[in-house]
Amino acid sequence: MNTQFEVITSIKNPKIQHVKRLKDKAYRRSCGEFVVEGENFLKDLPSESEITAFFVEKDKFKEFEYIIKRYPSNRIFMVDSKVMAVMSDTVTPSGALAIVKINQVDETIQGNVAVLDGVSDPGNMGTIIRTCAACGVENIIAIDCVDHLSPKVIRASMGGIFAVKVLEKTSIEALKLLENHHIYALDMNGENLYSMEKIDLPFALVVGNESKGLSNIFRSKSKIISLPMSGKIESLNAGVSMSTALYEIIFGKNVIEK
């Protein structure tokens, strides 16, 4: 093991306490940093991402060495399993995590948009982000949603968070950004998406809160569309609804220029 890196053995170390506090949204935003954990996420970090600190378990140094060598030695910290367990947000820590700077987001919108109107579940948020990345929908507007930089959302996005742009806006701000878009919103009482002949471009697809559904403002400003149900169940969760609808719109209706 390379001995040039600082070794931290106390959970009371300020750097360790800083990582723990980054689980809190207000603290994340005040510091302008968030945590990325796990090999699959760390190896796929974009080259433009700024890593302020990288923590790795001493016994797993060799496993993560190919990632560690990308960063200056003064940003690498070795810890034992006890310290990693305190920092980690998972039941079984992978053995490595990094603190990443929150990038400034370009406020302009080009192309199609996914609008999350009050999505509160981290799993749903992460699923939608991942699906948007897979479908080439690079713009997401989040209105009164769970924080897209929370550890649970980051994990659920499976790296998709680095392939999309998330703008946190009010409903009024969102509608201003979408002035030139055709807005469609998912609701069980809307027109069957599979029966529609076309989707006008550029589109904005809206999904509402898991329990309350669409807000009144988006219900009134959107063309309401729905996914067919067999009759044995009334609705799908927000993540599945948005993902299914995006795939039908993007690939089923061939709205992407070939």
Task: Please provide a written account of the structure.
By secondary structure, the chain is an alpha/beta fold. The chain has ten helices and eleven strands. The protein has helices at 14-21, 25-31, 39-42, 61-68, 81-87, 122-135, 151-157, 171-177, 216-221, 238-252, and strands at residues 6-8, 33-37, 51-57, 76-79, 96-101, 113-117, 139-143, 165-168, 182-192, 203-208, 223-226. It has a six-stranded parallel beta sheet with strand order 8-7-6-10-9-11. A five-stranded mixed beta sheet has the order 1-4-3-5-2. Helix 4 (61-68) links the parallel strand 3 (51-57) and strand 4. Helix 6 (122-135) runs parallel beside helix 7 and helix 6 runs parallel beside helix 10 (238-252). The chain is elongated and about 65 Å long. The N and C termini lie far apart (50 Å). The mean pLDDT is 93.
Distance between the termini: 50 Å
Number of strands: 11
- Strand proportion, as a percent range, falls in 15-25%
List the secondary-structure elements in sequence, H or E: EHHEHEHEHEEHEHEHEEHEH
Uncertain ranges = none
Strand arrangement in the largest pleated sheet: 8-7-6-10-9-11
Mass-distribution shape? elongated
Output the structural class.
alpha/beta
Mean pLDDT: 93
Largest sheet: 6 strands, parallel
Rg, Cα atoms, Å = 21 Å
As a percent range, the share of helical residues equals: 25-40%
Number of H- or I-type helical stretches: 10
